[in-house]
């Protein structure tokens, strides 16, 4: 698992709210917060490569273009007529398991990614799944269902397998990072955000008064299937404490220890990996 990560939420939040308030005001607020949080074990560095921060930065202006799917829950795309994100994995949105015990998820990577480095990051991210689970992303040949990786506006994915090709957007300017590739592919495999879990109120407190009004849907609780796994602050699906904050005050606080580090994962946690293996009944033992 990743080493202890330093917290850089404040700088990240500066970026993520600039479009919604003046940069100056945000910066002043964030400095105040830095002082408050200096009591934590977290320190600050200039860049934050956690999935949560990267996605929020990339998505902060998302959802304004009419020809794109509606994006809710921060980076989850939904088709017209929002279905409650009930765990569809119980009713057919899992990917097919083959007789050899593997789950093959075909993918196409758009030629929008002209830089070799971009394709390398995406493909490396996809390959991490095969290293520790029975999910194998494979280049599409003629399969009906596949993930169609494109550089649309922001980072987003549908939840679970859709019929026919499904777009996973990894915008070239902000989403092409290992953690974001893993995060969006976990959505495509059927997983929701950690703070949406059915039992989240025992582990985090949602501070609605600090959430941007138009973003409150991101904090709805979902009747998830939790597979007997514990709530995981280190999940790559956990958002940071300042996600979608309108005032640089926390929107998600861990409980009972409000200073616990949350939402800083830069790669899948052991529990993220365990859940894939449980959901897809992977039989092979992985290290
Ligand atoms: Zn997400």
Characterization of the model:
By secondary structure, the protein is α/β, with parallel strands linked by helices. It has a single domain (9-279), classed as Collagenase (Catalytic Domain). It contains 6 helices and 9 strands, in the order H-H-H-E-E-E-H-E-E-E-E-H-E-E-H. The protein has helices at 9-17, 23-37, 51-59, 116-132, 178-189, 270-279, and strands at residues 70-72, 76-78, 103-109, 135-139, 146-150, 155-156, 165-170, 204-206, 252-254. It has a 5-stranded mixed β-sheet. Helix 4 (116-132) links the parallel strand 3 (103-109) and strand 4 (135-139). The protein is globular, with a radius of gyration of 18 Å. The structure holds zinc ion (ZN). Zinc ion is lined by residues 74-76, 183, 187, 193. Residues 1-19 form the signal peptide. Its cofactor is Zn(2+). The active site is at 184. Its EC number is 3.4.24.-.
Count of distinct structural domains? 1
Going by helix content, strand content and strand pairing, the class is alpha/beta
| Residues in helices, as a percent range | 25-40%
At the fourth CATH level, what is the homologous superfamily?
Answer: Collagenase (Catalytic Domain)
Per CATH, the architecture is 3-Layer(aba) Sandwich
The Cα radius of gyration reads: 18 Å
Bound molecules: zinc ion
Distance from first to last alpha carbon: 12 Å
CATH class: Alpha Beta
- What order do the helices and strands follow? HHHEEEHEEEEHEEH
- Mean pLDDT over the full residue set: 78
Active site: 184
Cofactor: Zn(2+)
GO molecular function, one term: zinc ion binding
Signal peptide: 1-19
